[in-house]
Design brief:
The protein is an alpha/beta fold. The chain has five helices and five strands, in the order E-H-E-H-E-H-E-H-E-H.
Length: about 150
């Protein structure tokens, strides 16, 4: 199995260091103190010009249960990240029972597939009620990474 080196970075300096250090890709986010949020379009563009960039898509801190307005923001952020040069997205939606939210995740995966973006299910996975069921579901959904 081919291993890839990924750095989690929050700014252009981190992306430059990752590229110069031989990283294969970065996970780009901001506000790590609250678990990470979606970075600006300008930051995505600059980083994507240096190294393969997977963008955290998370509109707010706190839990991973999103309402329709937040899901609309997530969809818009996925599209904008793609247009800015990202090659992948990092996301995840749960329901109130800490299960994977099929109604929220499946359309996001379909959008990523349509845009030819790689997918990673993020740290929401650490909060799922049943890890085995969640992992099987993510495999069935063809999510690229956890």
């Amino acid at each position: 199995m081919l291993k890839k080196l990924e750095f989690c970075v929050t700014d252009i300096l981190g992306a430059k260091i990752a590229a110069e250090s031989g990283a294969d890709r970065i996970e780009l986010c901001v506000d790590l103190s609250i678990g990470g949020l979606t970075p600006s379009i300008g930051l995505i563009e600059h980083c994507a010009g240096l190294i393969e960039t997977h963008v955290l898509i998370r509109p707010r801190g706190g839990d991973f249960v999103y309402n329709e307005e937040e899901l609309s923001i997530i969809r818009a952020d996925i599209l904008q990240a793609h247009l800015a040069g990202a090659t992948g997205i990092v996301f995840g939606c749960l329901n109130e029972k800490n299960e994977l939210d099929k109604a929220a995740n499946e359309p996001l995966l379909a959008l990523a597939e349509q845009l030819e973006l790689k997918t990673t299910f993020h740290r929401a996975f650490d909060q799922v009620a049943d890890v085995e069921v969640a992992l099987k579901t993510l495999i069935d959904w063809e999510v690229g990474r956890v």
